[in-house]
Amino acid sequence: MIGHITFSLVPIFTPFVWSMIMMISYVVLTWTKRYGILEKVIMVMVAMLTITSAIIAIRFFPPLAEFLKGFAFLIPSVTPDWAITQYKISQNPLVEILPAMAFAGCGAVNSLFYSNWALSKGLGLGQYFDGLENTTVTVKDLKNLDRGTAERIRGWYKSMFHDALWGANVVTLLVTFFYLIVAIVVLHPLKQAPGGTKFIVTLSQTFTKTIGPWAKWLYLLGASGVIYSTMATIYDGYAAMINKSMLICLPKWEGYKKISSIWRYRMWILYGTGANFILVYIFNAVPVSFLQAAAWIEGTFLLPVVARSIAYLTAKVLPNLYAEGTRSLIKPNFIFTLGTIVAGAFYAFLVLVLIF
Fold this sequence. Notes:
mainly alpha
């Protein structure tokens, strides 16, 4: 997908060649961990896409009564005939709605990357983190931490709270705006649905049909920033997560431990690069199909599992690792644990409704 977007912006190479260049750049970026300048550039590109989407959505905003119906938990009962026949979209709208709704934020597995990101940014025990997999403070040391240190560690709760609060709200608002533009204003009247290799080109009409032909470039720049940053994050996050999972699940595998931590991390980056190349280009897989599959597995089915696990680990397991004098500082407020459980149960309920 990123190859097609880059080709649309700079058609000097084929989409295949651009995809190879992008894949190599992901490896170089994660290999060197030099995100600074690129992070700022991508933030500007994504901000342009976000602000423009909001402006367009406000301009074509539906009557308030119609808008409020969208918050009444009413599931559309019918998929348009043209969407079923031309684009093979399911007759059950929930099949399309549920994965997108669950995957809108970050998904179940991607949410696990957050702890690694927090450590890398110096939050919590980040000052003791080596940037890859280890901290100089062991689990046994947690019992001996004084109250002042525990309060500093607890400071990452505030950062996490604001990330979740504002991030979730902004993402929800943006997705609502974007669905509004895509479903009501542009693609439904044109009887088009995004899919296949023309996925991005089809979506770009949400800008060109509302602002003008010139807006295609604005959309492509923003979309490239979103997808590139997402892929770079996934390369880094999955490599770190798989490495840590191997160390936890196979603690007696001495051969794996003999590999240096940096090369264990890099090994999984190369694995992800090779796997993507094989799946997408050798087997001619459609990127949108991968997104849909990931949304179902990671954003829907795994979400209740991860939510319940996080609630249990943070409320029961984590506080018990600390001494009685500092335990109350680490244990999350009951309302957050309850909210996590309710959110997981909500998605589990929707999945059961869909299946049965």
